[in-house]
Amino acid sequence: MIEQLHSRTKGDKVIWGIVVMLTMVSLLVVYSSTGTLAYKLSKSTESYLFKQFVFIAIGLMIIYFAHKVNYTIYSRVAVFIFLASIPLLLYTLIFGVSLNEGSRWIKLPIINLTFQTSDLAKLGLFMYLGRQLSRKQNVIKDFRKGFIPLIVPVGIICILIAPANLSTALLVGATSLLLMFIGRVSLKHIALVIGVAAIPILFLIGVAAAYYDKDENRSKELPEMMTKGRVGTWVKRVQTFMYASKEETSYQVQQAKIAIAKGGWVGLGPGNSESRNFLPHPYSDFIYAIIIEEYGLMGGAFVLFIYLAFMFRCIRIFKNCPYAFGAFLALGLSITLVIQAMANMAVNVNLFPVTGVTLPLISMGGSSFLFTCLAIGIILSVARNVEQMESPVAVEAAENEEEA
């Protein structure tokens, strides 16, 4: 059976192995970290384990079927997905399900489930960006013909995501600029975008500094116009990161630090986390802190190494893919997943202000988990094409064609 499964799955086998390892880690940690949630909702922890198992099974099927599709088809649907994501993001901002003053989800009819439209927008943007980068290589240095068609879609998506989820918008923008840099876009054009984007960020930092009383170690009251939407939340998070003393560190960060301190080098062991009973969202945003508490710094380093290995294998696909679209597609999707993972881990160890990003393939299942699986399936589709072209039969056919 294992041999049949091995023969049916194509593409980079190391990436397949990484997916299996991360999903196994997910099962263990989600089962361990949902005890308090189950108690509050009068459910059993096993129900969340089963739910996560179902999400993993569906996700693996998505990866399998997505990797069977020829990646050139994704070039044809990229424009449609990108254009469809724009009205969906607008709908989410106006009518979406709100949580913590932000509208990030829309509720699907009939099945009564919610999904984060920014996940679809990210996928559509990077597919479209890969398509545009491959088509604009001859004029990539030209501002009007090469740069504008690339930066306008990025700007639209980031602006629509930012009001409800600033951290995701910043990650999408940074990943897009990195992909443009790799795609030979002019450095002065990229620097111009960074300079423009830095203005609102510096303004936010300036507001955070101006409305914080260092003597009393507390935030000042913001003007009424700044309390609308999530501006107040952003300011508070920046203030907490910049100024708060150990006693006034945000509750989330404080509990994450306690979890990491308890973990030490080898951890408390699977299922022995204590901070899961106090840490908000230990099964999603702060799941990495639970990993370190239960498996120690060694376990946390292992998870970090797995994501870096995934990035390395995707760079290998990028280098070996003979066609520009496939190369940019695989690289763009892999960069956004790894940067998201790094951002989540950095928040957990208090290197970044608190954000709402999850740990790909490990945090408890949802729409983000399934879109991550779809992105990995597309990457493996590109890898499958590269594998076929590197096969002895393909090489021999190419040599015969060259001799002819």
What can you tell me about this protein's structure?
The chain has 404 residues and is mainly alpha-helical. It has helices at residues 2-8, 13-33, 35-40, 45-68, 71-95, 117-135, 143-161, 166-182, 187-210, 231-242, 251-263, 287-320, 324-348, 367-390, 392-403, and strands at residues 97-99, 102-107, 114-116, 212-213, 218-219. A hairpin with a 4-residue loop joins β4 (212-213) and β5. α7 packs antiparallel against α8 (166-182) and α11 crosses α12 (287-320). The radius of gyration is 22 Å and the shape is globular.
List keywords for this structure.
single chain; mainly alpha; three-stranded antiparallel beta sheet; two-stranded antiparallel ribbon; 15 helices; globular; disordered C terminus
Q: What is the straight-line distance between the termini?
A: 42 Å
Specify the helix fraction band: 55-70%
- What are the low-pLDDT stretches, counting only 5+ consecutive residues below 50? 393-404
Secondary structural class: mainly alpha
The helix count comes to 15
Order of SSEs = HHHHHEEEHHHHEEHHHHHH
**Lateral strand order in the biggest sheet:** 1-2-3
Number of strands: 5
Q: How many domains make up the coordinates?
A: 1
Average pLDDT, rounded to a whole number, is 83
Roughly what fraction of the amino acids lie in strands? under 5%
**Could you say which overall geometry the principal axes of the C-alpha atoms support?**
globular
Radius of gyration equals 22 Å
Main beta sheet, described? Answer: 3 strands, antiparallel
What would you say about this model in short?
The protein is mainly alpha-helical and 404 residues long.
